[in-house]
Amino acid sequence: MTAPAQSAPPTLALVNVSKSFGAVRALQDVTLELHAGEVHALAGENGAGKSTVVKTFAGVHRPDAGEVRVDGAATAFGGPADAQAAGVAVIYQEPTLFPDLSVAENIFMGRQPRTGRLFSGRGRIDRRAMHAETARLFERLGVPLDPRQAARGLSIADQQVVEIAKAISRDARVLIMDEPTAALTGQEVARLFAVTRTLREQGCAVLFISHRLEEIFELCRRVTTLRDGGFVGTDLVADLTPDDLVRRMVGRDLDALYPKQDVTPGEVALKVRRLTREGAFTDVSFDVRRGEIVALAGLVGAGRSEVARALFGVDRWDAGSVEVDGRALPPGSPTAAMAAGLALVPEDRRQQGLVMDMSIERNIGLTQLKTLRRETGRGGLISRRVERDRAADWGLRLQLKYSRLSDAVGVLSGGNQQKVVLAKWLATEPAVLIVDEPTRGIDVGTKAEVHRLLSGLAARDLAVLMISSDLPEVLGMADRVLVMHEGRLTAEIPRADATEETVMAAATGRPGSGKAA
């Protein structure tokens, strides 16, 4: 069903827009209308054309065909400055503020209010007026931030609020929010949604982009779906189910988003006893058996990623012990962890999991340099053919989508980058795979593929420790759920007993939330 037309002309619109980059058609005949007082979602898999839409609205790209319209009139943005002048502002997932300047200085950079004229012809910066106006902006948004506070040290959520305040100070009428919740906690998401609703009530047109379907259904009135650069349709969110939206995005039914296979756990592969790292976590003990997927759940800051880093030897633990297949690991030695059969897919794939300027094939081969040298047999040199053949094999196994294996890994979509990280570590044939936020920032179709891969690995006798802040993912994929709160394990919950209520109770430290860990 297509959403009914609205009587007033849209504040900002694309009408039958097409855009190509060389031989690649990024957008084809796309129409998208943003109306005042409405939150409108843009949905699609990675590579569907969402970023091109954002950059076209922002004046970065000009359409090859079709029109950009402002208040119903055709407009040609010559660049981002023209889009800003028309009232368009983009809030990105990771804001770019000047860290050593105050919040107020960031908001009014280049536009600071001035006192009377001096000999130079420019007045001094009127800091009192700047701070007062910043305070009014935050009051309008319902957020208690200090205008004098330095930007350095602000959370991502607070930085996004500063960017929104900056947009409002420029009289923005259209706010484009590109994956704004990807790095936020549940509480921070709730606050961002409250700010967005306030802007909607004040007459802003908001374009909201997210891979989290539940956010689209909670916040948005209409949703436009793209697939492979093409326009699928615009619908009222109330007329859709999540399954309907998934079908529009991927062009098919997903067999299951959480295709967990039933397995009988085998021998203990990972044994952790009383592991402690001062200031991070205390007295952590658990086992992971072959064939199991064990989830490590909890709120952001509970210590889950810190435990993973310590297990792999990135950080040294102060007390306790770790064994992989009965082999004791020394603290602070990734080399020993790898040799024992431990692999870690880190939370931040771009900063910690990949070398972004390096090729796909070289990234996959980084964990197997000794093996590649041995297979090459040229006195320590590595044959590019051997490296490429190995990478091509893993690309086929994981259904990696790429143009050439020699391309930089940075050109891949987020989901395909995650597959490269997985390939890199699966190539080491580990006994235990630790995956930290395995599906963060990837689209629903690729998310299902990653879940199917993890389930298949467990069925082939691998032990999987999965750290995730996505509660449906935890409940859908885990055989057991371990929950952390303030650096301690507070509960161990079997799959049959795991619900959102029991997991969240343990994550917030409430008693009676499951078997004590």
TrEMBL record:
Gene3D superfamilies: P-loop containing nucleotide triphosphate hydrolases. The keyword Plastid does not apply. It is found in: Cell membrane. Keywords: ATP-binding, Cell membrane, Membrane, Nucleotide-binding, Repeat, Sugar transport, Translocase, Transport. It comes from the Bacteria. PROSITE patterns: ABC_TRANSPORTER_1 (PS00211), ABC_TRANSPORTER_2 (PS50893). This is Sugar ABC transporter ATP-binding protein. It comes from Actinomadura decatromicini.
